[in-house]
TrEMBL record:
Biased composition (Low complexity): 309-324
Protein name: ABC transporter ATP-binding protein
Listed GO MF terms: ATP binding
Pfam families named in the record: ABC_tran (PF00005)
Keyword Nuclease: no
The family this protein is said to belong to: Belongs to the ABC transporter superfamily.
Length: 336
């Protein structure tokens, strides 16, 4: 495997009229890496992926895929790249298998090779057994997995998935995550966009977090964990007013929340609060973490005022790049 980056985006910017959808973003995805681009709706994730797939052109900046770029290499930029943006394009009136056979034919695979590859990829995405049914009858999750199968037909070096679990039910999310993990385990480079911190945490090695077109963090998931704040707990008691006073006295941040109080602060202080509640004769009806530490950090990064400084820093952690060193990658599954 060469040292060339799977994706190297430097200072990428894209505007739509007055809106700067992607604002001087940089990011690098090494070969073999599972890289997440994370952000809330409208952060600019899909716009980055569209630029990678050559569906739109950046206003400025450089975007290389395995060392190739659209202005220099045209459609060869997508050699070894597969995936899809938003949802895969499939023929609903044809079976899953037939869809894949057509695509294999378009890619010039001979009959025997095509048949073997189609079987392999159907097996990989767990659709063998349902492959002769029309796509029209597939669940949304099955369609997404068929889209991944279509991408895998080409034995890509880089697989780009745009929010692959978006809109899936819990079982569909579980299956899709398991599939992406399996692919990642096979050594394939994966670039995944998501708005779900838990998904990225489970699947990715490194992440770029975007907010309104800008990078607010990039670096390793491990580095992100080190920065995560104490998560909030949802506390429900028989007397929330007095419980709030006691929480405040213990130095905990407390605010009203649906069905009780949101309490944030040191775990020892939280333990002491429980003892205080018991001592004061206040009944405890519920105490549960209402977000994970990483979710707390994600909301902090993507919902605070935009003037706030970025969380990542170059400091001593080489994996924690600053925003102006930025990294990014995006893709879509356009077949050419
Ligand atoms: N073709 C376009 N014309 C005008 N505005 C656009 C266009 N494409 C995207 N935008 C705007 O650019 C911003 C970023 O959109 P983008 O789709 O990249 O975000 P995203 O992070 O992928 O969000 P989502 O998860 O909702 O898809 C949004 O404000 C969006 O409305």
């Amino acid at each position: 495997m060469s040292d060339v980056l799977a994706v190297n985006a430097v200072d990428l910017t894209k505007t739509f009229g007055p809106l700067t959808a992607v604002d001087h973003i940089s990011l690098q995805v090494a070969q073999g890496e599972v890289y997440g681009v994370l952000g809330p709706n409208g952060a600019g994730k899909t716009t980055v992926l569209r630029m990678l797939f050559g569906l739109i052109r950046p206003d400025s900046g450089v975007l290389e895929v395995f060392g190739r770029s659209w202005p220099r290499d045209g459609v060869r930029t997508l050699d070894g790249v597969a995936g899809f943006i938003e949802s895969p394009k499939l023929y609903p009136g044809l079976s899953g298998r037939r869809n894949l056979q057509l695509l294999a034919g378009l890619d010039g695979l001979d009959g025997a090779t095509a048949a073997r590859r189609v079987d392999e990829v159907l097996d990989t995405v767990d659709l063998l057994g349902r492959d002769r049914e029309k796509v029209r009858g597939y669940s949304f999750g099955m369609r997404q997995r068929l889209g991944v199968a279509a991408a895998l037909l080409r034995v890509p070096r880089l697989l780009v998935l745009d929010e692959p679990a978006n809109g899936l039910d819990p079982a569909g999310i579980r299956d899709m995550r398991a599939l992406v993990k399996r692919l990642a385990g096979s050594g394939m480079t994966v670039l995944l966009s998501s708005h779900d911190m838990a998904e990225v945490e489970q699947i990715c090695d490194d992440v770029t977090i975007m907010r309104t077109g800008q990078v607010v963090y990039h670096g390793s998931i491990a580095g992100l964990r080190d920065r995560a704040p104490v998560p909030a707990h949802r506390l429900t008691t028989t007397d929330d007013d007095r419980a709030a006073t006691l929480a405040g006295a213990r130095g905990l941040e407390v605010e009203p929340a649906a069905g009780g109080l949101a309490v944030r602060g040191d775990e020892k202080a939280l333990d002491a609060l429980i003892a205080d509640l018991v001592g004061a004769g206040i009944g405890l009806r519920g105490l549960a973490m209402s977000e994970t530490p990483l979710e707390a950090l994600f909301f902090m990064l993507t919902e605070r005022p935009p003037t706030a400084p970025t969380v990542s820093s170059a400091s001593t952690d080489p994996s924690a790049a600053t925003a102006d060193q930025g990294r990014h990658a995006v893709t879509s599954g356009a077949r050419r």
